[in-house]
Structure formats: structure tokens, C-alpha cells
Amino acid sequence: MASRRARGSAQKRQLKGFSAPAGMGGLSWETVERYPPESGLRSMINALTEVLAKHATGLLITIDEILRKLFDDLRQIGTQFQHAFRENREVAFAGAWVY
Prior knowledge:
Elements: H1 4-7, E1 11-19, E2 26-33, H2 41-53, E3 59-66, H3 71-86, E4 91-97
Parallel strand pairs: 3-4
Antiparallel strand pairs: 1-2
């Protein structure tokens, strides 16, 4: 994978606005990230499993005291694990329920 330096600066300037009051023009610029960081569970799992694969190991996520009211959160975690399994990433999950 090419480094950011080889691909260019991590930031770029882009035109934000243009104005021309009374015949005199003006430009405004802003600096933006060329490669905005990805966030979220899926991108974190991907990044971690890529690093861990270099060491012939995988990722284990454990959740203790799973409550019924947290099912929506658990469903989202399960969806991300399903993607990881389909991509043949070395991941495992262990959870403990509480009534």
C-alpha cells in the first residue's frame, strides 16, 4: 500500500467561496483532509485484524453482563462481526447474559 507521502499531502486546499463586490473580486479557501479518517466499529475491526494478522493472531471481543435493553447495540455488534466473518477475518466473540 502506498504511503500518504507518496500519494501527496494529507491536506488540500479547496475553493470555499467567491465574491465580487463593486467590481473587486475575492476568493476564500479552506483546508480540508484529503484522506478523512474512518470511524466506526467495522473500520476498527478491519484495522485491528490487519495488524494482528501480521502476528498470526486474531481479535477476541468479550462483553460481560449483556442486558435485554442493550439488544439493539448487540445487534449492531453482531452485524459487524458477520461482515468480518464473511471477509475471513480472525475474530471471535464471547458474551455473558444477565437476567
